[in-house]
Amino acid sequence: MAHTSVGPHLFHKPEIKTITLDDPWKWLRLGWKDLTHTPLYSLGYGAIFVVLGYLIIWGLYDTPLFLMILPLAAGLFLLAPILAIGLYSISRALENGETIQFKHITKAWDTNAWHIAIMGMILTFVMLFWMLTANVVFILFYDQPTPSWENFLSMVFFSGENTFFLMASLISGGAIAFFTFCISVISIPMLMDREIDFMNAIHTSISAIKKNRWPLMLWAYLIVMYIGIGIITFFIGLLITMPLIGHASWHAYRDLVGDE
């Protein structure tokens, strides 16, 4: 028996829609359309991620912790689903034909602030776990002399002497990233858009992946590819790739979840 949605605890779980391998590409097109409709807000959002990237480099470059620059930069993007909530709000407003204002970003939390905050804490713990894991993997599997900043990339990634370290890093990082994707692929746009608690949002997100495994694996690959492009361009590419993925994620949610 269906219940009327009057609050987070009486939320009626929606139908998960079936999508195809064409849909992730459609989400990118729609995300690009949103970005070009609101370049001031969208690129401003992207600029925040660029600045955060450079703050990480600036803060660690001349310290013994410079080896943590890449893990910390990667870990920052485990928080991206919650940090991009303003982009979801902009896309929703565009969908509703509203004139975009700064309040669409600042008030994106208002509808369901408590449960959005809990999701933020969960993703923060995941990031901290990743940082701990990266340190453990380095201690256990990196058996070469500690590289300097100048020869870090050539020595760690291209010397051919760190195969087990790189494999352990990819496996552990990939597992944590996949877990994050499973619980957050649509949960945070959903929390922003509906009266729902964080547990139901996570369950809906996981259910969407179970029902649409291959299209959403393609979507995960596209997210990693675009974010990777942003990072390897010394964070400059994030000016565009982060708002693009953020806007596209709203359209992913809209295509995956039926009405209440």
Structure description:
With 260 residues, the protein is mainly alpha-helical. It has one domain (20-256). Helix content is 69%, strand content 0%. It contains 13 helices and no strands. The chain has helices spanning 23-37, 39-60, 69-76, 80-83, 85-95, 103-106, 113-141, 152-156, 163-184, 187-193, 198-211, 213-232, 238-256. α5 (85-95) crosses α10 and α5 crosses α13 (238-256).
Q: TL;DR?
A:
This protein is an all-alpha fold.
Q: Tell how many strands the DSSP assignment holds.
A: 0
Radius of gyration: 19 Å
β-sheet strand percentage: under 5%
Which ranges are low-confidence, i.e. pLDDT below 50, for 5 or more consecutive residues?
1-10
Helix content: 55-70%
Q: Span between N and C termini?
A: 13 Å
Structural class: mainly alpha
What key attributes describe this structure?
mainly alpha
List the helices and strands and how they pair.
Layout: H1 23-37, H2 39-60, H3 69-76, H4 80-83, H5 85-95, H6 103-106, H7 113-141, H8 152-156, H9 163-184, H10 187-193, H11 198-211, H12 213-232, H13 238-256
Helix pairs in contact: 1-2, 1-13, 2-13, 3-7, 5-10, 5-13, 7-9, 10-11, 11-12, 12-13
